[in-house]
Structures are given as structure tokens and as C-alpha cells.
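Question (not urgent): is this output format expected?
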Amino acid sequence: MPESVDILIVIPAYNAAATLPELVHRCQKAAPDLPLVVVNDDSTDDTSAVLAELEIIVLTHEHNRGKGEALKTGFSYAAEHGFAAVLHLDADLQHAPESIPHFIDLYRSAQFDIIIGARTIELSVMPFARWATNRLTSWIISKMAGQQITDSQSGYRLITVACWEAIPLATTGYDLESEILIKAGKMGFTIGEVPIETIYTGGKSYINPLADSWRFIRLVWRNRGKQRHGGAESRILPLL
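Got this back:
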């Protein structure tokens, strides 16, 4: 496979009919050479009808299985079709597709296994509850992974398929994104960052604060202990 198409864009989607047409258009404009897959996690709105009108690959879950499972489906497709890495972003337009080239540039120039799109974690641009949660979880995950992670809750990431397949993932929801960072760091995989725009659209969030906080605590408890390999410092690539 030519280098230019060794990355697959994956968008996990649940009830995203309102945002998918614009998101897909902007992704294709930002990275016209990269194939794009949307994983429809048994949406109950018009997502299926909207996706039928778009010229993309669609993978569909017959039952709602959670974001983590949607990502697993996307990565399985990538592995089966020979892609080296997956760049995934959320479907709610809180990730600007125009940042995709920055992920690709860092992927091409450095040997990172995971690249996180790091938002500005400041009260001036982020609601207090999200600021506090992100500060705390990023500090905990950085300690557990043995690497400095600025924005552990960002769902905008590039991950190599080799890294993904090497990590035994037990979670199925939003907590999978924390799990992979903790386990990747402990296993010696390297984590880099690119700064991305902080966007809040005011759209509906499918995160359950109580349930997902409990899942995070349980995840941390299960993965406590010493890291098996030394981690590397995260590096941040300035936006051009």
C-alpha cells in the first residue's frame, strides 16, 4: 500500500445525523487521499439514511455497543485491509478535521505509536466541570502510563494498528480511551501530541458523569502497579 494511503480515518457515530454530512465533507477536504470509515453504532435517528447518501465506507452495529466497541470495529477493518494506522475523531464536530494534516506530519516525521490531539486545558476556553475532570484524569493517567499526557480525554487520535493490536483491551465504552493510554505507556509504546482547537458545540453528550466516573475509578484500580517498561516523554508539535 502506498505511504499516502496507509492511514484510515475512522469516525464512531451514534445519533450523528445532524453533523455527519459537514464532518465527512471537511475530512475529505482536509485529507482527500485518505479513505474514511464511519461506524454506525445502532443509531436511532436518521444517521443510517444520511450515511447512505455519502460516498464513504459504512460499518454498522446491529445493537448499540458503545464507543469503545465502535473503535474496535474500525481498527479491525483497518487491520484486515492492510492499513498501518487509524486516525479517529468524534462525530459531533468538536474536533476540527482541518487538524488532520498535523497528525499526519507528526506521524511521518516521528516514531510515535499514539498521537493525541491536545486541547487547551484552561478555564477560559473549557467549562469548569470538564476542566477539573480533564486535569485530574490526565494527571492520574500520566502517572500510570509513565509519560506526560496533556489531554487524556481527547477522542481525536492517531494510533498505529500494531500498537492497538498489541494491547489487551477490556473496556467497551468511553473508558477505552483511558485504558489504551495507561496500557500503552506501561508497555513502552510512545505517545506524542499535536495541539488542536478547543471546540464546544453545545450538542448532546452521551457521557454519563456518574457511570463513566465509576468506570474510570475501576479502570485505574485494575491497572494499578508498576509499569513494565520505561516510558518516553510526550512531545508537542506546534501548529503551523
